[in-house]
Amino acid sequence: MTVSQYDIAKAAGVSQRAVSFALNGKPNVSKEKREKILKVAEKMGYRPNATARAMQRRSTGTIGILVQHYTSEEAMLEGINRELQQAGYFTMIEQYGGVLKLDANQSRLLLERVVDGLIILNADDSVTQLVDRQFSNLTSHMVWLESSHFSSTGCVRRDESAVAEHAVQLVKDKGYDRIFYIERHAGLEPGRKQFPYSGGIHYSCLARHLGVQEHARKAGLGFDWTDSKLRLEPLSPQQLASHLELDRGDRVAVLAYDFWVAEWVNRRLLKLGLDCPKDYGLLCLDEHRQFKTANIWPELSYYKFDRHNAGRQAGRMVLKMVNEKCHCPSQLIGPELFEGQSL
Does 233 share its domain with 268? Predict the structure, then answer.
């Protein structure tokens, strides 16, 4: 049976006008009432008539999402889709290479005006320039999620500096003398341009590295680093141990760029009989992207990043831009530590 807004209003004990405001993302209803209405609508299985709503809004009722790969960042996409579906919008997911033209031709998304807003996911500098040039008409309805581009409005991403600061202070509080940071990617120089669509070097690589280095200096801790070369020819266990200088007699904490680097460090050093936290400390700065890190490696100390929630924030932001015709302040997502036994 089709559920109407009248049915929702009756079940929620509110007016039909309030239901209309809530379901359309309008500001004319309180946050508490909006949440109540949305919960009731979801429970009742409400599905808005997208065609009718699009005609009423004089819009397409669709939000575009640009990604490097269709399989990338599933948690973020799920978060985005949840917010948009609740508001009655469809999503159109396209890869960079499918819509961003390297020549002067405009993309189908632009020519056919098939989207009301755009969320760009994990874009490097090369993609940023192409989007700015080809989607200038959507600038006021555009959200950059976990991308190199970051300004005062329209962006959602992790606060890498805050994560680095928290990690360095944690290491210092636990009595370590120096930090050894292990990167995942080679070629970390500021302003490096990548070939379009390649994905390039994610902004977090440089931001995470420089953040740890700067906060280690401020905290008076020694700092050194190396590239794991996971994409090329990984360091041998002996090479890694040599870099760490474990025979210096002080306490060293290894800060790993992400879960894959942390796992690689642990496996490499275990081959030499070295274990954490007995011989060195290990702190991971980003969790596994597909699975719960605590389920895979419960002893690991690591920083969480709720990518599903980040996607939801981006979804809410683009909806507000589209429906309220306003600029939305950018949002930074702070550190959340899971303290295991590796540090």
Answer: yes
Residues 176 and 246 in one domain: yes
How would you write 88-111 as a 3-class SS string? Answer: CCEEEEEEHHHHCCCCCCCCHHHH
The per-residue pLDDT for range 142-160, each reduced to its tens digit, is 999 999 889 999 999 999 9
Whole-number Å distance between alpha carbons of 207 and 285:
12
Residue 14 burial (CB count, 10 A)? 18
Residue 193: give the domain boundaries.
159-305
Beta-ladder partners of 67: 95
Tokens 């005062």, residue located:
152
- Per DSSP, 136 falls in state G
Asked whether 180 and 225 are in contact (CB, 8 A), the reply is yes
235 pLDDT band, cuts 50/70/90, is: confident
* Sign of torsion over alpha carbons 52, 86, 17, 40: positive
What does each C-alpha distance from 256 to 106, 163, 220, 301 come to in angstroms?
A: 41, 12, 20, 11
Q: How far is residue 91 CA from its own chain's centroid?
A: 18
Of 12, 29, 47, at which residue does a domain stop?
A: 47
Residues with Cβ within 8 Å of 81's Cβ and at least 6 positions away in sequence, in order, are: 91, 311, 315
Instruction: Please count the other Cβ atoms lying within 10 Å of the Cβ belonging to residue 125.
Output: 17
The verdict on 196 and 229 lying in the same domain is yes
Residues pairing with 1 in the sheet: none
Q: pLDDT, tens digit, for every residue of 255-300?
A: 999 999 999 999 999 999 999 999 999 999 998 876 777 788 899 9
Q: Which residues contact 123 (CB under 8 A, 6 or more apart)?
A: 66, 96, 131, 144, 147, 148, 149
Instruction: Tell me the three state secondary structure of residue 26.
Output: coil
The sheet carrying 281-284 orders its strands as: 222-227, 178-183, 252-256, 281-284, 301-304, 336-338
- Residues 134, 179 share a domain: no
pTM for the model: 0.77
C-alpha 33/C-alpha 21 separation (Å) is: 10
- Do residues 107 and 191 both lie within one domain? no
* CA-wise closest residue to 157 among 146, 148, 165: 146
